[in-house]
C-alpha cells in the first residue's frame, strides 16, 4: 500500500481532460473539484506530504483520494451511496401520479392542487409537491401564447430584422405604432406614500376623465422618439403624424417605416400620401407580431415609468405628462440593441411548434403502458 501511495500517477489524456473539467465545477461540487485537483497534483510527482503542503490539506486526505483514484480511477472520486431510510414510494406510484397530473382533471376543478392530488393518490401533500418539483410540474400556472397566421411571416421577419441588424446607409429606420385609448385616470382617494416596511398604496377604484392616443416613431439608430397625441385614432390622425415625421427627417435621407398592417395604415388616404413620396419605404410586421416592432418597447417604458401610477384629472394633464416623458427621453436617448437574428427567431418558433405539436398515437407513447 505504501508503494502505491507514493508512486506517481499515470493519467490518460481522457482522464486528464475529465479531471480538469471537474476542477471548474461551481459551489455545488466543490468537494469533487478539490479531489480532482489532488489527483492532478499527485500526477505531477511528489509524495503525499508535498502535495498536502502545496494544496493546504492534510496528508491523510491526499492519501485517501490518491488510493481511491488508483483503485477505481475517476469513479472513485465520487461520493459513495449513503445509508438512509428505504423508499416508501416506488417508481410505479410516481409514474401513476405524473400521468394522472398530466392526463386528467379533478371533478370540480380545471387543474390539480397538491392537496387534491394527495387525497386522490393516497400520498402526503409534501410527497406530491416533491414529485411535482422534481419533474417540473406546476399545475397552478398557466401561460398564454400567440402564433402568427401571416402567410408571409418568414419573409417579413427577415425583412424587419435585416433592417435592425444591418440598416441601410443614407437612410433612417423608424418603428411606428400607436398606443391608443390611454385613459386619464384619477383615483377616488389620495395615494398613501411608501413607508419603511409598507409599499405605496392606492385605491382600486378610479374616475375616468377621457382618453388620448399616442402616435410614436422610434429611430432605431439613435433611440430618439417622435411622438404626438391625438384625440382620435383614425387615418386622418395618422396622416397628420406622417407629416410630423416628414418635417422632422432631413430631406436627403430615405425613410424606412416599420409598422403593422392595421386598417388605419392602409386606407386610400395613406396609400396616396406614401405613393407621392418615393423616399419612403414601408416594411410591414407579420400579423400578431407586435413584439417585432421596437417602438413597443418604448411604450412599455412609458407605461411602467409614467402612466401606470400617474394620476390625471384631465386629458390635457395626461398629454403634458407624455410629452414631458418623451422630451426627457430624447435628452439622453439610448437605442435598443437587437440581439436575435432572423434565423434564431425562426428556429425558436420551430422548436416551440415541434415541442407543442399534438402527439401522434402511432409514434408517441408514455414511459410505460399504451399510447395516449
From TrEMBL:
- The residue ranges of the Tc1-like transposase DDE domain are 173-316
For this protein, the record's InterPro entries field holds: Homeodomain-like_sf, MscS-like_channel, RNaseH-like_sf, RNaseH_sf, Tc1-like_DDE_dom, Transpos_IS630-like
The source's domain of life comes to Bacteria
Q: What is this protein called?
A: IS630 family transposase
Q: What is the lineage of its organism?
A: Bacteria, Pseudomonadati, Pseudomonadota, Alphaproteobacteria, Hyphomicrobiales
Amino acid at each position: 500500500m505504501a508503494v502505491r501511495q507514493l508512486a506517481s500517477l499515470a493519467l490518460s489524456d481522457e482522464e486528464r481532460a475529465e479531471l480538469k473539467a471537474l476542477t471548474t465545477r461551481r459551489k455545488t461540487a466543490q468537494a469533487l473539484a478539490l479531489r480532482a485537483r489532488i489527483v492532478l497534483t499527485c500526477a505531477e510527482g511528489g509524495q503525499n506530504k508535498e502535495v498536502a503542503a502545496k494544496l493546504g490539506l492534510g496528508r491523510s486526505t491526499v492519501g485517501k483520494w490518491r488510493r481511491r483514484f488508483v483503485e477505481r480511477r475517476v469513479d472513485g472520486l465520487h461520493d459513495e451511496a449513503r445509508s438512509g431510510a428505504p423508499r416508501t414510494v416506488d417508481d410505479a406510484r410516481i409514474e401513476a401520479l405524473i400521468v394522472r397530473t398530466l392526463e386528467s382533471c379533478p371533478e370540480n376543478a380545471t387543474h390539480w392542487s397538491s392537496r387534491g392530488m394527495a387525497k386522490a393518490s393516497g400520498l402526503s401533500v409534501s410527497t406530491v409537491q416533491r414529485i411535482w418539483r422534481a419533474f417540473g410540474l406546476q399545475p397552478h400556472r398557466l401561460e398564454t401564447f400567440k402564433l402568427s397566421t401571416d402567410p408571409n411571416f418568414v419573409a417579413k421577419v427577415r425583412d424587419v430584422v435585416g433592417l435592425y441588424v444591418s440598416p441601410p446607409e443614407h437612410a433612417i429606420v423608424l418603428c411606428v405604432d400607436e398606443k391608443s385609448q390611454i385613459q386619464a385616470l384619477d383615483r377616488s382617494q389620495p395615494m398613501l406614500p411608501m413607508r419603511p416596511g409598507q409599499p405605496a398604496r392606492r385605491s382600486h377604484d378610479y374616475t375616468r376623465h377621457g382618453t388620448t392616443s399616442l402616435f410614436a416613431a422610434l429611430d432605431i439608430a439613435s433611440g430618439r422618439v417622435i411622438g404626438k397625441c391625438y384625440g382620435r385614432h383614425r387615418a386622418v390622425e395618422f396622416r397628420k403624424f406622417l407629416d410630423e415625421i416628414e418635417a422632422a427627417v432631413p430631406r436627403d435621407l430615405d425613410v424606412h417605416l416599420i409598422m403593422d398592417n392595421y386598417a388605419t395604415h392602409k386606407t386610400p388616404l395613406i396609400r396616396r400620401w406614401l405613393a407621392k413620396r418615393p423616399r419612403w419605404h414601408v416594411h410591414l410586421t407579420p400579423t400578431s407580431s407586435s413584439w417585432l416592432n421596437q417602438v413597443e418597447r418604448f411604450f412599455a417604458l412609458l407605461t411602467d415609468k409614467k402612466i401606470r401610477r400617474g394620476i390625471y384629472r384631465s386629458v390635457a394633464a395626461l398629454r403634458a405628462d407624455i410629452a414631458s416623458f418623451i422630451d426627457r427621453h430624447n435628452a439622453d436617448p439610448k437605442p435598443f440593441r437587437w440581439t436575435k437574428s432572423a434565423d434564431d427567431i425562426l428556429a425558436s418558433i420551430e422548436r416551440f411548434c415541434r415541442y407543442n405539436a399534438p402527439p401522434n398515437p402511432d409514434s408517441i407513447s408514455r414511459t410505460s403502458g399504451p399510447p395516449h
